Amino acid sequence: FTLIELLVVIAIIGILSSVVLASLSTARNKASDAKIRSQLTQAKTSAELYANNNGGSYTASNMAAAALPCTGTMFADAASGMLILTGTAASWPTGTLLSCQATATGFSISANLPGGGFWCVDSAGKNQAAAAQQASADVDC
Prior knowledge:
The chain is α+β, with helices and mostly antiparallel strands.
């Protein structure tokens, strides 16, 4: 092989590897998005069970402000054994910001998606993309 041929082969390998790495990044973001949507769906089911065990109430409490960890009574009720948002912060994809809101009659949980946008679940049965993070006291996606 001549030096020119070797340089051409190295350039082609470099171009192909950059295309593959870009595809892997996209796939990783989609996987993280799917994990967050799944975790929020599980949290929605847990919240319904919590309400059934508490006389139909979602327990209004001092929820964390939007984009802060969810620490209110319904979302971290260790006394009743009903932990709505299970796992540690490490179990959520890096950079996930949760917003949890609850009143006696409803709740909403939203999170940012690494692939872009937000995902929201609420007591009305919505499990959908959202334009922005839930604001404080907003229990409707």
